[in-house]
Specification:
The chain is mostly helical. It has a domain at 22-53. Helices cover 45% and strands 0% of the residues. The longest helix has 15 residues, at 3-17. The radius of gyration is 12 Å and the shape is flat.
Length: 53
C-alpha cells in the first residue's frame, strides 16, 4: 500500500472512531456532488474526492 493510501485509511479510521459518518460514493461528478451534499443538510461534512486514473 502506498504512503498516500495508508494516510487515507488512517483518516477513515479516525473518522469512524470519533463517531462520525463516512460516506463513500462512486459515480459521475454530478452524482458525487449530490451525494456529498445530502449529509450536509443535517451534519457538518468534510468531503474528500479521489479521482481514479
Amino acid at each position: 500500500m502506498s504512503h498516500k493510501n495508508s494516510f487515507v485509511v488512517i483518516q477513515y479510521e479516525t473518522t469512524l472512531k470519533s463517531d462520525k459518518f463516512l460516506l463513500i460514493a462512486h459515480g459521475s461528478q454530478d452524482e458525487i456532488t449530490h451525494a456529498s451534499g445530502v449529509p450536509g443538510t443535517t451534519y457538518e461534512v468534510e468531503v474528500a474526492v479521489h479521482v481514479s486514473a
